[in-house]
Design brief:
By secondary structure, the protein is α+β, with helices and mostly antiparallel strands. The chain has helices spanning 106-121, 129-143, 182-196, 251-263, 269-277, and strands spanning 2-11, 19-24, 35-38, 55-64, 70-79, 147-150, 162-166, 169-175, 201-207, 213-219, 224-231, 236-241, 244-250. 24% of the residues lie in helices and 32% in strands. The strands form 3 sheets. The protein has a 6-stranded mixed β-sheet.
């Protein structure tokens, strides 16, 4: 929910992100504490520019603390700017719907890109594995990968989360929120490599829009084949087996590519495929 409040206190230790507390303007039902905020949730504000008593507007979020109690957190934090008071305003003329809308003002477009980037970066804050998997699938679609398929979650243990083909690239991917996954995923990675090795086509079980299950047979003859473990970590190459590259791919790097593609008119499918093939190399 949207809320306003003033900064009660804040501090920042050397080498760490800043943290602080906001006194909400309107009381939160059954909650008598200040709202906590983190430096990473500031928008169009530097932590160093904050002052006690500064008015802010923000979105309230909640989580459970280590004792299992509800804790309210401020997200999407901006400096509160009151609207100017207009005296005796003139009537606003009705819009002329006979004329087509004018071009988007450059500043409006910049704000749009900033909000788009902020929305995409919120994927990095997801801590539920199922939501993270769904968000990654949507991100791949937004990148411009049309032939991307999400596997059904029914009896999914040991299986990948999805598969996509883009130009000459074929990728089987798996999403994980684990920081140290290599030993945990070792057997699954070997299974993914086996599925891609020495085959001209691949049949996968997919998740339908209505929640049901289906299957899809895809031609992968002559394509560059990779296995991706998509994480919140850093992009790197893990191993190469039988010409199949296995990589850890950071979701933050996919977000960066998505934002770049929105900004560049010449960012076609071939350019995108080349960029994805070279991730981690």
């Amino acid at each position: 929910m949207q809320q306003k409040g003033t900064i009660k206190s804040f501090h920042k230790s050397e080498g760490k992100k800043g943290i602080g507390y906001i006194t909400p303007k309107f009381p939160i039902p059954d909650y008598d504490k200040n709202v906590v905020f983190f430096e990473g949730d500031l928008e169009e504000l530097d932590f160093e520019s904050l002052k006690n008593g500064m008015e802010l507007e923000f979105v309230l979020d909640q989580k459970q603390d280590k004792h299992g109690e509800i804790e309210w957190i401020a997200r999407n934090i901006r400096k509160f700017v009151p609207l100017p008071v207009k005296r005796n305003p003139l009537p606003t003329p009705a819009p002329d719907i006979s004329k087509p809308p004018g071009p988007i003002h450059p500043s409006s477009y910049k704000v749009f890109l900033e909000k788009l980037g902020s929305s995409l970066k919120s994927i990095e804050k997801i801590n539920d594995s199922g939501e993270f998997e769904d968000a990654v699938f949507s991100l791949l679609r937004l990148l411009g990968i049309h032939s991307v398929y999400q596997y059904s979650r029914d009896a999914q243990a040991g299986k990948a989360d999805g598969f996509f083909i883009l130009e000459n690239l074929a990728v089987m991917y798996d999403c994980t929120l684990r920081n140290s996954f290599e030993e945990y995923k070792k057997e699954q990675i070997e299974n993914y490599i086996h599925k891609l090795s020495n085959k001209s086509q691949l049949t996968i079980e997919t998740k339908k829009a209505d929640g049901g299950r289906g299957s899809k047979t895809l031609q992968i003859q002559g394509k560059s084949r990779q296995v991706w473990i998509i994480t919140k970590g850093n992009t790197r190459e893990l191993l190469v087996f039988d010409s199949i590259k296995v990589k850890e791919v950071a979701v933050k790097d996919l977000i960066t590519i998505a934002i770049e593609r929105c900004k560049e008119l010449s960012y076609d499918a071939e350019h995108l495929s080349s960029k994805l093939v070279m991730l981690g190399d």
